[in-house]
Specification:
Helices cover 19% and strands 26% of the residues. The chain is α+β, with helices and mostly antiparallel strands and 563 residues long. Strands 10, 11, 12, 13, 14, 16, 18, 19, 20, 21, 22, 23, 24 and 25 form a 14-stranded mixed β-sheet that branches. Strands 4, 5, 7, 8 and 9 form a 5-stranded antiparallel β-sheet that branches. The chain has a 4-stranded mixed β-sheet with strand order 1-6-3-2. β2 and β3 (65-69) form a beta hairpin. The two termini are 26 Å apart. The relative contact order is 0.12. The model is unreliable at 1-8 and 24-42 (pLDDT under 50).
Length: 563
């Protein structure tokens, strides 16, 4: 790769990513020589290096990951943020109060040019079920402060959890106001379910009315390009506010690399159609993703391979099974898109791969949590868009991998999982669904719930509507809710129920829009499925008489990321 003349294997990358493991004492840097080099490096920089903000992630009952990346010129074309070609020592502090009067931990990490001056600090030995505040220093420059939390003791339920989930933030399609409004909700945990950033060059993915702002640089293919694109997104102050508010659990979907890729297969019409070139592209995307996310050392990539599926336990209250439905899947059946496709039911096909499927089902068997939550990317429930005998479904979602879905649901039924809930992004609209033992039989047993968040910006403003009139809900009675506005979902998880507010914004084209609740759905303990407790009335500004086929076409177009 032209911008990475010295490719790094996983072992080397561990040493060059500024990773620090901090226990009950001061930080331990990976190697005395590198620690000495960090101490010797000058701290004087030409400006504020904290232009990309701060973040925390992957909490457990003893700690969490702290992240920052130094950049003087975030949009520098080489992807290195205008930083000098030298290691920069970064001091960090963790406090028990937001004024930093009670410092609990402090240390120094090395921000190295080989890792785009990113820093990951893994903290251990903190107290369970507590709030903490953290910040970084380089010379006289001090970063914004972030808030993080540790999970409860494994044997404790802890307090009710305010958990939010988001997806699909196409920078060009709107302002990140939804991230700001989410930060104002003061959540305890934020799940990002993919499409954190998009690969397209300026002008290649436009929305009606025109894009609100533009991407810098060409379509992301190289390491420099992915680093620059992540920096452009991270420069947004609304996104920074959401990262400062709470720890995140992140997984990728397709656009962090390329639209609708599947394992080693690029999308049709890819800029990198050659398998070797696509493998290099995946390696660049994975490395940039790690450099720009608050992930643990277990996720340091090895070339194009990256361990992202993992399990985060929130005491006895919840297990979060974070899935990766891109890296191990079979190619989409029947050429992708919405199809009536017999191959979608092939029992040999998998969206997770065998190892991840086994890991997930084993996790179900061992779970003692009140709630088992799957944080994943693509629609889980069946969505047939044809009212006749044909079954026309999305080949990119779990509908394209029917046997894979059946094995997962059988896994949680056999394990007697108490409350299975699937969280989903990807489709740029809010949905809520009952999960059925047999989707083709409306009277069959309900075996779980799926909650789907809309996009932060992708697709533009969208429109409000009466969900009962949507043809998908008529064809698929297990689908209970739909809304095509931008926003997020915030859930309050307690021992007795999981209550989810579907938040929407009237516009993402102009700054300052307020968020409001379109609907509230509750999943009760030991009662699978969703129950609506609130729906904001819809008042049409004019007479509407669109045919069902037009609304189906609009829904598919809204969720299909093809310029």
């Amino acid at each position: 790769m032209a911008d990475a003349p010295h490719p790094l294997d996983r072992r080397t990358l561990l040493v060059t990513t500024g990773l620090v493991t901090a226990g009950t004492a001061v930080a331990v840097l990976p190697g005395a020589a590198t620690a000495h080099a960090a101490r010797r490096a000058p701290e004087t920089l030409a400006g504020d290096p904290f232009t990309l903000g701060v973040a925390s992630g992957d909490p457990d009952h003893q700690g969490f990951v702290l992240w920052t990346r130094l950049a003087l010129k975030p949009l520098a074309e080489d992807g290195l943020g205008g930083m000098p070609d030298k290691t920069v020592p970064v001091r960090w502090e963790v406090a028990a109060d937001e004024r930093f009067r009670r410092i609990e931990r402090r240390g120094t990490a090395a921000a190295r040019p080989e890792s785009a001056h990113s820093v990951h600090v893994e903290l251990k030995g903190l107290r369970p079920g507590r709030e903490y505040w953290y910040r970084f220093r380089v010379g006289s420059h001090v970063s914004p402060a972030g808030r993080a939390l540790t999970a409860p003791q494994p044997s404790s339920f802890g307090s009710p959890l305010a958990m939010a989930f988001v997806s699909c933030s196409q920078f060009e399609h709107g302002l990140f106001t939804a991230y700001r409004r989410l930060a104002e909700e003061n959540p305890d945990l934020i799940l990002h379910l993919g499409d954190y950033q998009y690969e397209y060059k300026k002008g290649s993915y436009n929305i009606p009315g025109g894009n609100v702002r533009d991407h810098e640089g060409p379509e992301t293919v190289t390491l420099a390009g992915y680093r620059q694109r992540h920096a452009q997104y991270k420069s947004d102050l609304d996104l920074q506010a959401a990262h400062e508010a709470a720890p995140w659990l992140v997984v990728w979907d397709d656009h962090e690399t390329e639209n609708n890729w599947a394992a080693g297969v690029p999308e049709a019409g890819s800029d990198t159609p050659d398998p070797a070139a696509f493998r290099e592209r995946r390696a660049a995307a994975a490395r940039a993703f790690y450099e720009n996310m608050p992930l643990r050392r277990s996720s340091v990539p090895d070339g194009p391979d990256m361990q992202l599926y993992r399990r985060v336990r929130w005491g006895r209250l919840a297990n979060f099974h974070m899935l990766d439905t891109r890296q191990y899947r079979d190619d989409q059946a029947c050429g992708d898109g919405y199809k009536d496709c017999a191959a979608a039911s092939d029992p040999k096909r998998s969206i997770t791969g065998d190892a991840q499927e086994k890991w997930l089902i084993d996790g179900f068997r061992r779970s003692a949590a009140r709630w088992d939550v799957l944080g994943q990317q693509v629609f889980f429930a069946q969505r047939d868009n044809n009212s006749g005998p044909a079954k026309v479904t999305s080949m990119d979602g779990w509908d394209g991998y029917v046997a894979s879905r059946d094995r997962i649901t059988k896994g949680w039924l056999d394990a007697k999982v108490r409350n299975p809930v699937v969280l989903t992004g990807d489709v740029h609209a809010h949905w809520a669904s009952d999960l059925k033992a047999d989707f083709d039989d409306p009277s069959s047993r309900t075996i779980g719930a799926e909650l789907v968040c809309s996009s932060i910006t992708s697709g533009g403003d969208g429109t409000d509507s009466d969900p009962a009139t949507h043809p998908f809900l008529k064809i698929n009675p297990h689908l209970r809710f739909y809304n095509n506005q931008r926003g997020y979902v915030i859930s309050r998880i307690g021992k007795d129920e999981m209550r989810s507010d579907f938040k929407t914004l009237p516009t993402v084209r102009t700054a300052g829009a307020e968020a409001s609740t379109k609907a509230t759905y509750v999943v009760e303990d030991r009662v699978p499925g969703v129950k609506q407790t609130y729906l904001r009335p819809y008042v049409s500004a004019k007479s509407e008489s669109r045919a069902d086929r037009d609304r189906i076409r609009e829904t598919i177009q809204n969720e299909t990321d093809r310029p």
